[in-house]
Inverse folding.
């Protein structure tokens, strides 16, 4: 998309006028982008390796600690609201054992149901039913990953895309309209048309926000929020109008079912809900990773996100980067919307087709650290929570809203490692290193 | 190529500043023209004849004003003419290098609004109640205005308050329980304030003490509070709805004499306590931010925390302080849902109002008074639906409902332009 000479790898003179710090950073970036064996940058590399080692050694314990804390908080909520626990605790001092048993049943039952609904059902009679929950998790994860990527990509370009709802609605409408309105097109072609329509609609809707931001400086937060409402009412109108999106012969604001030839085929056979949409989401992860880390366009996105002024000085067209990053972000959210209509809900949809995924995607992107692989992992985790939450609600009568609480606590704790370390009395890696270093220096001095 | 490049680099800051100035002023005129053209297209494409009946007083009012019946089409076109004149004025002024004055924009908006209402209500046998339209707008703006005030206070101190939604919802929930138990709306209001401040405290703990990205904390807190309140609602409030979820609401208090003023009286002076508080809160927040030592310190911490620290202002403490006040103010807005509007709590009943309040903060350029007016605009938007559904609208109601948001988009793009947040907004302060 960018002119070749704006690619950071091709024009060394371009950086000549920069101050040394920026030039060095660009140099490092160039080495990374071009994949050069950076012999001259051993200093950088060792620094990078050290940082990596540091995060690896500490972040795992912190992540586990964060999940533990969130689960404990969820358990407390279950314990305080469970009827059996309440009944048993009224005679706690007479027979404390009863309370403990009730507690164990309430909390254990809840998390067992969560696991049964999201990973493996060990009570299942056959293999297919046993692994069904896992495929359900991936089914729920599909739109979360795609939309999460959209939000994450915008984050990397320094934009806060709260417009996932609107982008998904527009994408769902476009994909759905092609999906049931066009007939006589054979299977793979029809599906492809619907997908492209959905992705394009999402991209255009987000592109409006990007264009307004680039041209007039309108804040993208307010624009995307307003576009959510506009999209919602637009879809509501289309759904209520015969001849547009409304199913013929019906007065409900609902579309006709998606044509067979436009549906995403099942990935593992008819007995599972999982479709090829998941593979598309995986491809999107790969694509975003490539775009951000290996392409000059992605480099310009990140540069603008890190420091728009420095990026402009370095010759990057910031306005263009803003618009194109929003277009790509919207396209990814559009993929989520299209996968909903073409794979998730094929029996016709109404204006709640976005199912809050546009907002969930923000949490997914944040938990994933705005990095494509992180988004993949976070999307699968949240998919598991969604799948398990409904099982928990059905089996144990615990409102699935508790899943929201546990999810958000996990993100919150992971974002605050010092807090988790303080609670679990984990050593602080930064503090531990300093005295060692001091000791080493002293030794050197003694020698 | 490289030589070219350097020239542009050198010129960039200078040309950019000059360019921005001119672009901004032409933009206002351009947006006015766009709106005028769209308005005219609407009148031409969907012509609407008949009379419109503006109802300016309610039954039982001290002064009775007869229903004003006007032929709709001429009125709508007359309003369009006013809009055209203002647009022309804006172009002339811009050409002379001056900015279009605020009163012109206000006149333009008023003309557009009256014309739109005339067109919408044309031919309807029912009266279009102006009082209902405006007093409903004031009522519905309560959560937006309080939320926006909370957002402004937080951000002027350098903490992005995306958790307005969480503060509103948490406050609504707490107010519902406390007001139900105590049978007192005032007690509910106090509980709401505490709940809002509590959410703000959690935000502060993560954002200020632990330096977590403020956007992350805000968004996550919103989800957390939705989850918590929905969970507790179905586990605790639903089983004992009689005792825990049937609140005592604030009643309207008509202010003697003032409430008898035609139109304005019932709109402004016959409202519940929470709304009078809002009338006081907006100027109070403005005064506190701009005319007191507390406000000066708060703003300095939001603009340049290091400088503030250097002169001996405790950045962390000032930010906590501001955030708690912000949460408390937003909490007042949350109380609206369960102590004014409805007498019970419902799952996720704020439905994104916090995000609208956030939009109002940015729309109002981080100024409490402007943000409050932006909140009022969104309140008007929320209420328009109710009034138009009574009249029966000529175009699909969905498009009517969309109009305020489209207007906001145009306004943000054209009239507000590049908005500059407080310099240190979103930056955690790490001493040293």
């Amino acid at each position: 998309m960018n002119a070749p000479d704006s690619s950071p790898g091709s024009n060394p003179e371009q950086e000549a006028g920069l101050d040394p710090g920026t030039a060095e950073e660009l140099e490092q970036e160039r080495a990374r982008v071009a994949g050069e064996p950076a012999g001259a940058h051993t200093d950088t590399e060792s620094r990078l390796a050290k940082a990596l080692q540091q995060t690896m050694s500490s972040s795992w314990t912190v992540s586990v600690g964060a999940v533990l804390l969130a689960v404990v908080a969820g358990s407390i909520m279950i314990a305080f609201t469970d009827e059996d626990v309440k009944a048993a605790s009224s005679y706690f001092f007479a027979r404390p054992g009863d309370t403990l048993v009730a507690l164990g049943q309430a909390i254990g039952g809840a998390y067992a149901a969560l696991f049964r609904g999201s990973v493996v059902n060990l009570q299942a009679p056959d293999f297919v039913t046993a692994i069904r929950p896992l495929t359900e998790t991936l089914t729920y994860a599909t739109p979360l990953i795609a939309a999460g990527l959209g939000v994450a990509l915008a984050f990397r370009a320094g934009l806060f895309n709260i417009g996932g709802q609107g982008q998904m609605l527009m994408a769902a409408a476009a994909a759905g309209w092609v999906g049931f309105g066009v007939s006589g097109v054979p299977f793979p072609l029809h599906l492809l048309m619907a997908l492209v329509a959905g992705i394009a609609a999402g991209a255009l809707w987000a592109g409006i926000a990007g264009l307004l931001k680039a041209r007039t400086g309108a804040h993208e937060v307010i624009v995307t929020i307003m576009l959510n409402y506009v999209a919602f009412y637009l879809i509501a109108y289309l759904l209520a109008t015969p001849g547009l999106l409304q199913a013929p012969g019906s007065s409900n604001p609902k579309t006709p079912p998606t044509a067979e030839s436009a549906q995403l085929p099942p990935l593992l056979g008819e007995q599972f809900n999982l479709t090829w949409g998941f593979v598309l989401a995986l491809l999107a992860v790969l694509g975003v990773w490539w775009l951000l880390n290996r392409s000059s366009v992605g480099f310009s996105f990140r540069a603008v996100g890190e420091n728009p002024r420095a990026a402009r000085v370095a010759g990057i067209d910031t306005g263009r980067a803003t618009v194109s990053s929003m277009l790509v972000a919207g396209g990814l959210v559009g993929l989520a919307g299209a996968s909903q209509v073409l794979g998730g809900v094929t029996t016709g949809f109404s204006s709640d087709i976005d199912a809050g995924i546009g907002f969930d995607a923000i949490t997914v992107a944040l938990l994933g650290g705005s990095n494509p692989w992180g988004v993949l992992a976070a999307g699968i985790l949240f998919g598991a929570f969604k799948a398990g939450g409904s099982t928990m609600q059905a089996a144990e009568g615990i409102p699935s809203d508790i899943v929201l609480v546990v999810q958000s606590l996990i993100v919150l704790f992971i974002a605050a490692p010092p807090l988790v370390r303080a609670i679990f009395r984990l050593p602080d890696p930064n503090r531990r290193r300093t005295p060692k270093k001091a000791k080493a220096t002293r030794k050197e001095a003694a020698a | 190529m490289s030589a070219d490049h350097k020239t542009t680099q050198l010129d960039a800051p200078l040309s950019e500043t000059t360019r921005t100035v001119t672009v901004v002023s032409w933009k206002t005129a351009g947006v006015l023209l766009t709106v005028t053209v769209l308005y005219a297209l609407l009148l031409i494409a969907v012509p609407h004849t008949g009379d419109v009946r503006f109802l300016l007083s309610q039954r039982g009012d001290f002064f009775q004003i007869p229903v004003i019946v006007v032929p709709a089409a001429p009125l709508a076109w007359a309003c369009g003419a006013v809009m055209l004149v203002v647009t022309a004025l804006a172009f002339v002024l811009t050409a002379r290098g001056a900015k279009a004055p605020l009163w012109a924009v206000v006149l333009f908006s008023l003309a557009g609004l009256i014309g739109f209402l005339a067109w919408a209500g044309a031919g309807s046998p029912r009266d279009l109640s102006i009082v209902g339209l405006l007093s409903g707008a004031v009522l519905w703006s309560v959560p937006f205005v309080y939320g926006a005030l909370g957002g402004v206070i937080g951000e002027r101190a350098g903490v992005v308050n995306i958790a307005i939604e969480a503060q509103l919802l948490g406050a609504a929930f707490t107010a519902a329980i406390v007001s139900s138990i105590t049978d007192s709306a005032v007690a509910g209001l106090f509980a709401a304030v505490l709940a809002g401040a509590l959410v703000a405290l959690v935000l502060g703990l993560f954002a200020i003490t632990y330096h977590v990205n403020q956007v992350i904390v805000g968004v996550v807190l919103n989800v957390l509070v939705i989850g918590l309140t929905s969970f507790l609602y179905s586990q605790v409030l639903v089983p004992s709805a009689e005792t825990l979820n049937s609140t005592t609401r604030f009643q309207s208090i008509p202010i003697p004499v003032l409430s008898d003023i035609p139109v304005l009286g019932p709109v402004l002076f016959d409202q519940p306590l929470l709304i009078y508080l809002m009338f006081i809160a907006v100027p109070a927040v403005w005064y506190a931010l701009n005319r007191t030592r507390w406000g000066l310190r708060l703003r300095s911490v939001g603009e340049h925390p290091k400088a503030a620290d250097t002169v001996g202002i405790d950045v962390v403490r000032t930010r906590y302080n501001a955030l708690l006040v912000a949460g408390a103010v937003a909490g007042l807005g949350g109380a609206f849902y369960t102590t004014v509007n409805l007498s019970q709590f419902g799952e996720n009943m704020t439905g994104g109002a916090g995000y609208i309040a956030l939009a109002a903060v940015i729309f109002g350029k981080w100024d409490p008074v402007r943000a409050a007016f932006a909140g009022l605009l969104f309140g008007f938007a929320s209420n328009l639906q109710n009034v138009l559904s009574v009249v029966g609208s000529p175009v699909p109601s969905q498009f009517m409902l969309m109009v305020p948001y489209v207007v906001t988009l145009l306004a943000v793009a054209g009239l507000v332009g590049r908005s500059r947040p407080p310099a240190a907004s979103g930056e955690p302060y790490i001493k040293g």
Observations:
- Chain B is about 70% helix and 5% strand.
- Residues 173 and 229 of chain B are 7 Å apart (CA to CA).
- The radius of gyration of chain B is 24 Å.
- The longest helix of chain B spans residues 2-45.
